[in-house]
Amino acid sequence: MLKSGPITWKISPEPKQDKIIKWHTRTPCKSGISTMSSVAVLTQESFNEHRNGLLPEQISSVGSSGNDDDDVLPTYKEAFPPLPEKAATPEGRQELDNAWTKIRPLKSSIITQVFHVPLEERKYKDINQFGEGDQAKICVDIMQKTGAHLELSMAKDQGLSIMVSGKLDAVMKARKEIVSRLQTQASATVAIPKEHHRFVIGKNGEKLQELELKTATKIQIPRPEDPSNHIKISGTKEGLEKAKHEILLISAEQDKRAVERVNIDKVYHPFITGAYNKFVAEMMQETGARINVPPPSVLKTEIVITGEKEQVAQAVAMIKKIYEEKKKNATTIAVEVKKSQHKYVIGPRGNTLQEILEKTGVSVEIPPPDSSSETVILRGEPDRLGQALTEVYAKANSYTVSSVLAPSWLHRFIIGKKGQNLAKITQQMPKVHIEFTEGEDKITLEGPTKDVQQVQSQIEAIVMDLVNRMDYTEISVDPKFHRHLIGKGGANINRIKDQYKVSVRIPPDNEKSNLIRIEGDPQGVQEAKKELLELASRMENERTKDMIIEQRFHRAIIGQKGEKIKEVRDKFPEVIINFPDPAQKSDIVQLRGPRTEVEKCSKFMQKMVAEMVENSYSVSVPIFKQFHKNIIGKGGANIKKIREETNTKIDLPAENSNSEMIVITGKKANCEAARNRILAIQKELANITEIEVSIPSKLHNSLIGSKGRFVRSIMEECGGVHIHFPTEGSGIDTVTIRGPVEDVEKAKRQLLSVAEEKQTKSHTAELRAKPEYHKFLIGKGGGNIKKVRDSTGARIIFPTADDKDQELITVVGTEEAVREAQKELETLIKSLDNVVEDGMTVDPKHHRYFVARRGQVLRDIADEYGGVMVSFPRTGSQSDKVTLKGAKDCVEAAKKRMLEIIEDLEAQVTMECVIAQKFHRSIMGPKGLRIQQITREHNVQIKFPEREDVQASTAETTAQENGETNGEVKDAADPATPRKCDVIVLSGRKERCEAAVEALKALVPVTIEVEVPFELHRYIIGQKGSGIRKMMDEYEVNIQVPAPELHSDIIAITGLACHLDRAKEGLLERVKELQAEQEDRALRSFKLTITVDPKYHPKIIGRKGAIITQIRNEHDVNIQFPEKNDENQDQITITGYEQKAIAARNAIQAIVDDLEEMISEDITLDSRVHARIIGARGKGIRKIMDEFKVDLKFPQNGAADPNLVTVMGRPEDVDEAIDHLLNLEEEYLADVVENESKQAYMKPRATASSVSAGEEQRSSSKGFVVREAPWTTSTEKAPDMSSSEDFPSFGASVTPKTSPWGPKRF
To answer: Which portions of the chain have biased composition (kind: Polar residues) (predicted)?
Structure first.
């Protein structure tokens, strides 16, 4: 249906018809539909194409200027056929087809429709607000919502015209919106039968949506439970009528169909459906109606028949006939069948019931599974019931259920590895089902009676055999030792299994069971039991100690390929050392073994760590991955400079690693300096910002997640920003985020969102414990509470000193985690209630030792022995009674340890060690580490004297030399008496003090002198002191090199006596290396020259230096060619070992000899073939030179003889190359001549003269000429393109005039 309106037509020509121009001028016709007028512009190019399409005689005729041939020219109508103005006659149609059939009509996906809203139906009638207000807003909203384009205009009758453009579905949606929002709405109802409503809605409501779009109305259909059959329609009057018509059409169509519901007793449904639904299918095929019989599982009696009325009536009659017949003739019998046999009567998917129905015509009714009844009812013809009963009993008794007694621990042996034993039985008897129930001492068999009996006898035989030759036992072992019994990778337990041919079941950790079960050969079971109990007993007497060693030192302690830890293990073979997995980020290293050995190993490893801490400080700097290359710099320049200037070791992650951390190692101050420089580089390169977000500290753990996974996922998602949480337990709420501005904002939003979610879903519980129990619950270093937190995921908060309620403990987390943590804490509190109090006698003179240094000794005892509280009497009291309070075992162990300490104190002596004061600082070591180590190792007390003032000491010495002090004459001091400032006092057991004195003396630095030739000093020092620093670090000594102006050969080495010999050997070894290098340098400096004509130099060097590089590498020499300005241009210098220099000279001389044998010949090759011979990028000429072992030289541009080509090489090679070149010339020249002959017939390229000639020719040309043009049939001349009247410019007023083209329309 076409509507009147300003529809624009556009016809685009076919690609091959470029001379037809687009038409887009509108001329309204009488019908109101725009038609097309044509305007054609023919360019010079299209004219040329037109000429090319004509025959030769036509071209000549067009080109001739004689008036006699004008009839050959095309007429204007032939060149520009007009469009039809009205319906064409058959003749006209034929004529039109001839002219326009080549233009293919195009269909646009964009359509345009015009809707008219009369004044009386307009919602917004304010004429003054046209294009403004609510109406305009609604139009904009419709366009945004539907994607269609709307144009509004006002008609003379104040009606609203709306032109909608767009794709079909968009236009239809826009139309619906226009009708509902810009047009007043009317409403109507239409009543159709309730059962027809679903056909109006359609599948998934598609039909209803289609109706609403098509009619631009809103259709409301009552819900199924609503008894009303009225459908309400709202919309425009036109839309209402359309919608009512469509709905009534749907209803009328459905009226032709009928639905009938027949109530038939459920027990007669099988007779209507027949076996396997055979009868009902035949009825449906015969009548054409659809019959729906509810399945047996649905307790409905209603059978629904749908279809044409006649078909439905016929089907209903047939169903009722069957029902009446069966109701009249059928009788029933009830029989008892065991409940367990019902499933065999039913059969898989009810197939057995269908089989009985098909064979006998009798329906078998089985009670439902949830019923306890065993009565089965048979319904059918009396003469068939006997046969059916026989079938039912046969099916019921065809299967039987039996059981075999077998201990549950034997079940897996009966099944066999991967079910092999059982598979043999089931393959023979596939119909028998064998069921093993865990924890029960029987096996259930189910299947055909005969097969079950055979399988039962086989399994009974297997069970009897296993019982006779196998045994089992159970042993009780503490679960904490289970993993040690298993061994690394199951080594221990697998060995026991293989050795004793037994099966050992160790319960998993989550079962928390002590029982280990051993099964197998009786003798093997007993032996395995004995070994496992011995292992468990040994473990109970062992001690396990956890050492806190920072993870960054673990690799250094283990060493490359594990050589360092192997030394430790060899030294302490009875101690098992376990390092945590690197992925766990744990600092705990576990030692396990005999008590004394574990202690020794622990001290040894503490000493190792102390040395590492002293020599290494490490800091990690997070730098965004994209800036690592800038920090490294070109060729590693930046990172090398930072390393050298800060004297640090800087490690960057691998390129394929996701890590962004740069690790800096060295002295603390140096590491900080390097860190600041690296951060400065990053700050320069990127817009890095840092913000702080306040998140309650109680949420930090949950936000970080297990092993930092949660926060790591946020960092990765937000472009790799860095998120830093404050230290746990600090109570600080501030979280720092650093990175690019946009990514930081994104991370901030995510963190706050997750924190809010965690806060709302968090669960809290409270429990009470005495304040003195709190530290026991927390444990040493928070070990106990950390264990609870790790196992449950809950956070446990203890009261601070400022809290009023000191007994309240708060648990925070998910409901399940809180419940688990609360349970564990209550268990710990209960165990703490079992506290005993004991006493012991300690001589008051020893009290001070225990309570000194703020009770450090007592704190150590409390930490080691489960938090035992030791109370000494007040100072000044003469009481010797000491009270110990704690768990019973812990109190006993603490008492024993205190008695050991008292015994040591009783045996304590005081000893003096005289060491000059100037060495004291060296003996103490950095931060007193060395002296602390001696104190720990020898269990002694060491006291250093106060430092003596140097000036006072000097003055006193001078006075003493004269024997006078303050004018008083005194006896001269005994030179053998040591000064107070040199005396170090040691207290402890005698043997320990003696050992400590030896250790102190061993720490006194000693200086030795080593003679090293002065000229080698600078090599020993190395670049920026790197060489001497390396030696000092390696040998742990100080090496003093004399100043250069002294010209001394003596180097002083100062250090511990045990290190000096090794350092001296190392220094002398270095001297030998340097002397060997000096000798080698002298040998390598041999120099000789060879005279070679400069014209041969390029040949010796080779292409890109290939030949000379090969000689240099082969003979390990340096070959120097003369510079351009050198006087001796023929001298080549060779430097290296004498023999190798001579060999290199011989190699060069051999090349020169070969070159001198070469000849040079000039040949004439036509310059037109040079390019072909040379080839693309010289590929052709290189091939010839390689093939014939010659050099070719072609003339340069502007050469006197452009055809002259020079060939150089051996005589025989030159001759072959010349022959080949002349053959190529002959071949290529033929192609050149042929191309030139073709060029003669081709259009020449435009030149300046030809362009001017062409312009002159065009100016005299008449162009494209047609006959009977409008301008030749009237008095007027052709339009003048230079006339402003015929072709006015914009804004100029022109007087209209008539034209042969018809009236002008604008």
So the answer is: 951-965, 1271-1286
